[in-house]
Amino acid sequence: MFTIGLTGGIASGKSTVAALFSALGVPVIDTDQLAREVVMPGELALDKLIAAFGPSILDATGHLDRKALRLRVFAHPAERIQLEAILHPAIRARLATQLAAITSPYAVIAMPLLAETHQQANFDRVLVVDCPESLQMERLLARDGETKAGAKAILAAQATRHERLQLAHDVIENTTSQTALGPQVEALHHRYLALAQSRSS
Fold this sequence. Notes:
The protein has helices spanning 14-23, 31-37, 44-53, 66-75, 77-100, 133-143, 148-157, 161-167, 181-200, and strands spanning 2-7, 28-30, 106-110, 125-130, 170-173.
């Protein structure tokens, strides 16, 4: 399976790009969705999180309170490392299972924290959706209703724009309108099909 790791900073347009690939018939696996699945009640990863952080991380229904946990680990870097040590193996295992069931020439794996978790070697190519941090800030404030301080904290916790671009085989620029994304995705789609075919032949 020829795999494309799709990443980018928060509010860079990753989800829009992923949806455009999906519209072309490309299987897209969203690791954020996998992260939600592996912490559902009854999952081993949730039991490990409760053991590590206590039952206060659950909401009234017994589900993980993701926002509360996110705020907690942002404030305590050691706890963030502990959280990732529990979640990432569970997500990787579920990803491997889903990839094994795909028969298409290639698949896109949307992974917001690809650079932060140093997983670039797990993919044939890394595709970065790029925009300036000032534009990320603007979008965060408008889209999520974040405070400026909150948005700055989120950006500071992620890899820098430079660090992501250092890993990129391909870059999609998302600095203007969404209509500019379609042609970039289509061009890459044809390129990835050719690359996948050349490797399998």
